[in-house]
UniProtKB/TrEMBL annotation:
Function description: Required for formate dehydrogenase (FDH) activity. Acts as a sulfur carrier protein that transfers sulfur from IscS to the molybdenum cofactor prior to its insertion into FDH.
Subcellular location: Cytoplasm
Gene3D superfamilies documented for this protein: 3.10.20.10, Cytidine Deaminase, domain 2
GO biological process: Mo-molybdopterin cofactor biosynthetic process
SUPFAM superfamilies xrefs: Cytidine deaminase-like
One Pfam entry name: FdhD-NarQ
Chief localisation class: cytoplasm
Annotated catalytic residues: 111
UniProt keyword list: Cytoplasm, Molybdenum cofactor biosynthesis
Protein name: Sulfur carrier protein FdhD
Length: 278
């Protein structure tokens, strides 16, 4: 399999002078996803958990709804200059061939999609509407999840250059953590894990991401039926709109014991408070 890190020479400049030394970097390579031998899309990713990534991507795009929809997912032959398999082409055979419209992917914020169109599209496409009464999480448990996520970012420790996503139970137990050069790929990887473990719809799980909460990440959570998304950084305005429209709890700036709740505050159990003195 491909490596997730690579070594490159670098010139380090500092007040004490210059030094040449090797540096450890996160690997970025293309992954071509094919359906029945036909190219579907190419994503730039960090190698690893590719099968989960593809399952999560196909779920997010409403091409599949369960692991049973996939007959097989196999790497195609492809070699580099030294004759080694690159593991950069993955062909998926579906139980029922995807319709042509499945190839018209939902455009993300980076492509300037109209906000109202985006909201209507996701709401119409999801197979797993989020129940209003699904999940209740103590804020203190939620606040601890980013630290747990960070502690399991082994490749980030070596490179400083990867995003992470994790799926947690309401009490803060981490079920799956994945890293990737792309935040959307990291989310696809954990959602693909959930799909393959028959945990979709994920109505009892919390999705935590290491960076910001974009529209695309909220879309992926909604498509998997995840009722709560927590982000270490800020959400976008369209992400908040989609979360509110879809009944998803969206929490941003999840750092330490503080957080901003942008939608779905009813899923956060109130903090216990001391009784007033009599």
């Amino acid at each position: 399999m491909s490596r997730v890190t690579a070594r490159r020479r670098t010139l380090r400049l500092s007040p004490s002078g210059e030094i040449q030394r090797p540096d450890t970097l996160a690997v970025e390579e293309p992954l071509e996803i094919r359906l029945g031998g036909q190219s579907l899309t190419v994503t730039m990713r960090t190698p690893g958990s590719d099968i989960d990534l593809v399952h999560g991507f196909l779920l997010s795009e409403n091409i599949i709804g369960s692991a049973e929809d996939v007959v097989s997912a196999r790497y195609c032959a492809g070699t580099d200059a030294e004759g080694r398999n690159t593991y950069n082409v993955l062909d998926v055979a579906l139980r029922v061939p995807a319709p042509a419209r499945a190839r018209n992917f939902l455009t993300t914020s980076s492509c300037g999609l109209c906000g109202k169109t985006a909201l209507d599209e996701v709401r119409a496409r999801t197979r797993y509407p989020i129940p209003a009464d699904s999940l209740a999480v103590d804020p203190s448990a939620l606040a601890a999840m980013p630290e747990t996520l960070r502690a399991r970012q082994s490749v980030f420790d070596a490179t400083g250059g990867l995003h992470a996503a994790g799926l947690f139970t309401a009490d803060g137990t981490a079920l799956a953590v994945r890293e990737d050069i792309g935040r959307h790929n990291a989310v696809d990887k954990v959602l693909g894990w959930a799909l393959r473990e028959n945990r979709v719809p994920a109505a009892d799980l919390v999705l935590i991401v290491s960076g910001r909460a974009s529209f695309e990440l909220v879309q992926k959570a909604v498509m998997a039926g995840v009722p709560m998304l927590g982000a270490v950084s800020a959400p976008s305005s369209l992400a908040v709109d989609l979360a509110d429209e879809s009944g998803l709890t969206l929490v941003g700036f999840l750092r330490g014991d503080t957080m901003n709740v942008y939608s779905g505050a009813h899923r956060l159990e109130p903090r216990s408070s001391a009784r007033p003195a009599s």
